[in-house]
Design goal:
The complex is a heterodimer. By secondary structure, chain A is α+β, with helices and mostly antiparallel strands. Chain A folds into four domains: about 120 residues, Uridine Diphospho-n-acetylenolpyruvylglucosamine Reductase, domain 2 (2-Layer Sandwich), CATH 3.30.43.10; about 120 residues, 2-Layer Sandwich (Uridine Diphospho-n-acetylenolpyruvylglucosamine Reductase, domain 3), CATH 3.30.465; about 110 residues, Alpha-Beta Plaits (2-Layer Sandwich); about 90 residues, Alpha-Beta Plaits, CATH 3.30.70.2740. Chain A is built from 18 helices and 20 strands. In chain A, strand 8 and strand 9 form a beta hairpin. In chain A, helix 12 crosses helix 14, helix 12 crosses helix 15 and helix 16 packs antiparallel against helix 17. The longest helix of chain A is centred in the C-terminal third of the chain and has 21 residues. Chain B has seven helices and eleven strands. A nine-stranded mixed sheet of chain B has the order 9-8-7-10-6-1-4-5-11, with helices on both faces. A two-stranded antiparallel sheet of chain B has the order 2-3. In chain B, about 35% of the residues are buried. Helices cover about 30% and strands about 25% of the residues of chain B. Chain B folds into two domains: about 220 residues, 3-Layer(aba) Sandwich (Rossmann fold), CATH 3.40.50; about 35 residues, no CATH class. In chain B, helix 2 links the parallel strand 4 and strand 5. The longest helix of chain B is centred in the C-terminal third of the chain and has 17 residues. Chains A and B meet through helix 13, strand 15 and helix 14 of A and helix 5 of B.
Chain lengths: ~500, ~260
């Protein structure tokens, strides 16, 4: 309710701010009636949306709507790679920007049509085309909900492991575009590790096959890996071959309370170096995050005494082994200053401990809908040095910066939350300054802007804080080689001048 | 204070799939957990023990695998567990189950308080708690929401009733079935888990309890399941279209009338 109210209140500001962000709009041509009818010819009337109200859900992702949303001129929902290729050729001919879109659950504005133009939503390309047991691979279309893949495979004892946190909504296409990570990356890695092959419609409208069902392949450049994580700027994935692994059948979670952040973070490497165990996940929550989430959930864990918590998961295919690993880690935690170790080895308790972690973002939206959910990543050993810096920035700008995330891989969702007492103008100013300071600190510690959410339109103005001009130019040259007319998701990662 | 807590192991039903043909639940691959509502009774038991001393014993009737539920309760802080198992118990209805559990509690001997969950999430009857009290001929408070005071021989409790709360004073021993608001169940700790792993759990059969076998299992159960049918969802919605000022004000009137008829405004 709070969130809706504030969205309505700041409608006028929303418009002015959105306007300032649409640069170089004149470079592209508008979508005319003639173009709409050509699109209708390609995909059929049912798959062309021009009604403002129906297009509105395609104007934003999970970044704050009032800051980043932008309306498309038309939305198309094609069924095949051939249809997409025709649309892309049309867009090149007419110089109209294209924004590819998955489920819209992104956190960097990657699927937002910031120059208007055509949104290509892959929502109707949602078939699982083949389950190849012998090769342990699955072939899917980009609009398949990632979680559905695992539901279907579970019956066969198989598992797609590159799976992120927003499990119930996100599409595999979006996961590939962002090279999504998530809570299990410590052990299983991220999306890119499991993508064996891609079918891609290039920004010029060619349909190409990259990679395949081959475990080894050094024939030519590995363009497939370049596409993974390219945020939809180098083409539209229309098919993906994913590697599968045997489904782990046993898992145990430990929720560990520590007196302070440092004790908690020091534990992360000890699990692996001393415990000799690679856990499935090591999630970190600072005091602020835990409190907000527990209050939001009416969860009565003794969190008041804890300065930080770790949520550690181990999984495997033998119950006794998994239990033993959990016990080893638990003992190690107690030996190294843990206040308490809770064990969750069944659905009831596992849901309870994970919901504390999963509801942090929601809990802070209740406190203030205006926030910047960040995705910084540093070498894991640098996390203890990062924490006092967060506190310093938070004090300096009088904002809350709860910090939680994937401690096991150094990827932390420090979130800048607007002080409810400040005005929106003040917030936008503070947000920009505080972000710059956060990124500077991150860089100094050997880190970077984003571990799994991407640069998109949200972070592009900060890119030069991380890369040298030569590095950025290299990326721009790749972009130009793929997309000479700059029509494929323009204005994401960087602007092409 | 010696406390006995009968618990039940139930299938985890939040992701359950139904067999379309038979209308029954597909149990394969479904995890068994402690009946979620029993956790509140377990928590109250442990809290009372921490305050007044004594011992908490959890008991359950079920297959051998129900031992896991007992160990989880011990990991939370209960002291002992007793597993009642054997094929002679199979098919017991709530009457026979209450009979078996009350016999087990008699065999345990001295007890001051019996705590039970409000009902099990699978059968949803809420009959076994009261059934045990009736077989043991001890006072009962259902829907207990708060324990106000315990003295040597009596307990004062609040129970949830339709219009509010009712306060009861009862002699001990007695049986309470508890509702969610009575406590916040704790999570088992590593130390608790380690202890629970080592605890020896006695296994009792009908013979161990000298039970009259005509009163247990399917044959001893007065309840017969004649037919299982699905409830039909008859939830209807009305859409009132408003296209202009006039139809909008008509629609608003209609809504107000509707809410007034239902005594909602």
């Amino acid at each position: 309710m709070d969130r809706e109210m504030s969205e309505i209140c700041c409608d006028s500001e929303q418009k002015s701010r959105a306007k300032s962000r649409t640069l170089n709009k004149k470079r592209y041509n508008p979508v005319t009636k003639e173009i709409i009818s050509e699109l209708v010819q390609i995909v059929g009337e049912k798959n062309v949306i021009t009604d403002e109200e129906k297009m509105e859900p395609y104007s934003y992702d999970e970044t704050p709507k009032d800051q980043y949303a932008h309306m498309p001129e038309v939305v198309v929902t094609p069924h095949t790679a051939e249809e997409i290729a025709k649309i892309v050729k049309l867009a090149n001919r007419e110089l109209i920007p294209i924004t590819p879109r998955g489920a819209g659950s992104g956190l960097s504005g990657g699927a937002i049509p910031i120059f208007g133009g055509i949104v290509i939503s892959v929502e109707k390309m949602n078939r699982i085309l083949e389950i190849d047991y012998k090769n342990m691979m699955v072939v899917v279309e980009p609009g398949v909900v990632t979680n559905d893949i695992n539901e279907i495979l579970a019956e066969k004892g198989l598992f797609y492991a590159g799976y992120p946190m927003s499990v119930e909504t996100c599409f595999i296409g979006g996961n590939i575009a962002e090279n999504a990570g998530g809570g299990k990356a410590v052990k299983y890695g991220v999306t890119g590790r499991y993508v064996m092959g891609l079918e891609l419609v290039t920004p010029l409208g060619d349909i190409v096959q990259l990679g395949g069902k081959r475990v080894k392949d050094v024939t030519g450049y590995d363009i497939k890996q370049l596409i993974i994580g390219s945020e939809g700027t180098l083409g539209i994935v229309t098919k993906a071959i994913l590697k599968l692994i045997p489904l782990p059948t046993a898992k145990v979670d430990l929720l560990v309370l520590f007196k302070d952040v440092k004790t908690a973070i020091d534990m992360v490497s000890l699990i692996m170096t001393e415990g000799k165990i690679i856990p499935t996940s090591v999630e970190f929550m600072d005091k602020l995050s835990v409190q907000a989430s527990c209050e939001y959930l009416n969860e009565h864990l003794p969190y008041q005494q804890a300065g930080a918590m770790l949520l550690i998961e181990v999984d495997g295919n033998r119950e006794d082994q998994v239990e033993e690993d959990a016990e080893t880690i638990g003992e190690l935690c107690l030996k190294n200053g843990a206040i308490e170790v809770y064990v969750a080895d069944n659905y009831t308790t596992q849901e309870r401990v994970w919901s504390v972690r999963r509801n942090i973002a929601e809990a802070f939206i209740v406190i203030s809908p205006h926030q910047s959910l960040e995705d910084i990543v540093v070498p894991t050993a640098s996390i203890p040095d990062l924490m006092p810096e967060l506190e310093r920035i938070s004090k300096k700008y009088n904002i809350q910066i709860p910090c939680y995330g994937h401690a096991g891989d150094g990827n932390l969702h420090a979130t800048l939350v607007k002080n409810p007492e400040s005005t929106l103008e003040e917030w936008y100013e503070v947000e920009d300054k505080a972000l710059r300071e956060l990124y500077e600190v991150t860089k100094k510690l050997g880190g970077t802007l984003s571990g799994e959410h991407g640069v998109g339109s949200k972070r592009k103005e900060f890119l030069e804080m991380i890369f040298s001009p030569a590095e950025i130019e290299l990326m721009k040259r790749i972009k130009r080689a793929f997309d000479p007319n700059n029509i494929m998701n323009p204005g994401k990662i960087f602007d092409i001048d | 204070m010696n406390i006995v807590i009968p618990i039940k192991q139930v299938p985890e039903t939040s992701n359950v799939k139904m067999d379309e043909e038979t209308g029954t639940m597909i149990r394969e691959g479904v995890e068994s957990i402690i009946n979620p509502l029993d956790l509140y009774a377990i928590e109250v038991g442990i809290e009372l023990k921490e305050e007044h001393g004594g011992k908490v014993t959890v008991i359950t009737m079920g297959p051998q695998s129900a031992e896991k539920a007992l160990r989880e309760a011990i990991a939370m802080g209960c002291d002992d567990g007793i597993l009642i198992t054997g094929k002679e118990f199979k098919g017991s209805d709530t009457w026979a189950t209450s009979f078996v559990l009350s016999s087990a509690i008699r065999k345990i001997g001295t007890y001051d308080l019996i705590l039970a969950g409000e009902r099990a999430t699978d059968g949803d009857t809420g009959q076994v708690g009261p059934g045990i009290a009736s077989f043991l001929n001890i006072p009962l408070s259902t829907y207990t929401s708060r324990i106000v005071e315990i003295t040597d021989n009596t307990i004062i409790v609040e129970r949830l009733i339709e219009d509010g709360y009712e306060t009861l004073q009862m002699p001990l021993p007695c049986l309470l079935t508890v509702v969610k608001e009575i406590s916040y169940p704790r999570l088992p700790t590593l130390r608790g888990k380690q202890k629970a792993k080592k605890v020896e759990i006695p296994v009792w059969s009908a013979d161990d309890m000298d039970l009259d076998k005509s009163k247990i299992g399917l044959n001893g159960s007065p309840t017969r399941v004649v037919r299982i049918s699905h409830p039909r969802i008859a939830r209807g919605g009305t859409i009132v279209k408003a296209t202009d000022e006039e139809s909008l004000s008509r629609a608003i009137d209609k809504l107000i009338n509707f809410l007034q008829e239902k005594n909602l405004i």
